[in-house]
Amino acid sequence: MASKKREEESKQLLESEMAMSDMKVDDRTDRVCPKCVIATCLKKCPRCGSETFKME
After folding, report:
1. Collapsed DSSP state (helix, strand, coil) of residue 1
2. CA–CA dist 39, 24 (Å, integer)
3. Which are the contacts of 24, defined by CB distance < 8 A and separation ≥ 6?
4. Sheet holding 39-40, edge to edge
5. pLDDT tens digit string along 3-51?
6. Which among 22, 41, 19, 13 is positioned nearest to 5, based on CA atoms?
7. For residue 27, what pLDDT is reported?
8. What is the residue-wise DSSP string for 5-56?
9. 32: exposed, middle or buried (Cβ count in 10 Å: 0-12, 13-18, 19+)
10. What pLDDT sits at residue 13?
């Protein structure tokens, strides 16, 4: 029973990681989060919620 739950959690984690990597590939990523070091087009980081900065 526990292994099935663990399997579900790892599957969800993998899916969320894939969603994050899709976000990094976005061609409008002209901003970057200083904490998570992920590129985004949003003014707030989707992962941690802190403000992002324009990349040079």
Report:
1. coil
2. 5
3. 38, 39
4. 39-40, 31-32, 53-54
5. 888 888 877 766 666 655 555 555 677 889 888 888 888 888 888 888 8
6. 13
7. 60
8. HHHHHHHHHHHHHHHHHHHHH-TT--EE-TTT--EESSSB-TTT-PBPEE--
9. middle
10. 63
How many beta carbons lie within 10 A of that of residue 38, not counting itself? 18
Assign residue 37 a region: left if phi > 0, alpha if psi is -120 to 50, beta otherwise? left
In terms of Cα–Cα distance, which of 6, 50, 8 is closest to 31? 50
The domain segmentation of the chain, as residue ranges, is 2-54
| Cα–Cα distance, 24 to 40 (Å, whole number) | 6
